[in-house]
Amino acid sequence: MLLVVATPLGNLGDISPRAREALERADVIAAEDTRVTRKLLSALNIPAPELVSYRGQDEAKRAAPLVERVQRGETVVLVSDAGTPNISDPGQHLVRLCHEQGLPVHAIAGPSALTAAVSVSGLTPLPLHFLGFPPRKSGPLRRWLRRYGALGGTLVMFEAPSRTASTVAVMAEELPGRMVCMARELTKLHEEVVTQPVEELALRLQGTRVRGEVVLIVGPGDPPPAADAPEQDLDTLKSIAAALAVRWGCSKREAYQRLLSLEDRAP
């Protein structure tokens, strides 16, 4: 079987008994970064089984050999560097291939930066839109914020510490008046959770050097003035993605993500 195992975000006390047992009994562990996973196993005093790299940039070609091992009766454990695999981390190809082959896939639930951040943000939790990582460049970022800022509900995104201040600054211009939570270094020694108007958070971060893993949560608010029929735009993209999925031989979700990526590269 394939076991999708959630591992601690930082505090080793968050490892569940089921996760520990899965790591101990695995025939092979597919890890986003084998060095990170080896350190985790050492800290937990778990003898390291076979570790294989399962990185995002080439997970498609690494999935097939792991599926073959599951077919042979082995237990394959999938882990990311921290939290739950397949949530903006590698895992989709392996999980999907196992399902296509009729192989059992089980979740060993546990830590997730997404749910942990929402739980301490104080912002309305539903409806909730998880957006992954925002575009890096200013132009695509502004269009991205306008598009998703027009949706009803709360927005959740991951961001690199080096870009957090600039992203929040653009957010203050595109989504003024919204409440925003910055959840940083969750479960770790220097955990910080700040919820305040986006303009105030932008001033707070101006000229500072943010450190650690960051989750940004944007509360609901008025649609951006520049938003131009976003729901219709999304429906159009989904229709195009459905047609391209057949042509490209991939899932509708993959085709949709590729389209968004191409759009974000536009000047």
* CATH architecture field of the largest domain: 3-Layer(aba) Sandwich
Share of β-strand residues: 15-25%
Shape: globular
Q: Could you tell me the radius of gyration in angstroms?
A: 20 Å
Low-confidence parts: none
Helix percent reads: 40-55%
Query: What is the CATH homologous superfamily assignment of the largest domain?
Result: Tetrapyrrole methylase, N-terminal domain
How many strand elements? 10
Q: What count of structural domains?
A: 3
Average pLDDT metric? 90
Number of distinct helices: 10
CATH third-tier fold name of the largest domain: Cobalt-precorrin-4 Transmethylase, domain 1
Gap from first CA to last CA: 45 Å
Order of helices and strands: EHEHEHEHEHEHEHEEHEHH
Strand order of the largest sheet: 3-2-4-1-5
| Biggest beta sheet attributes | 5 strands, parallel
Quickly name the level 1 CATH class of the largest domain. Answer: Alpha Beta
- Helix vs. strand class: alpha/beta
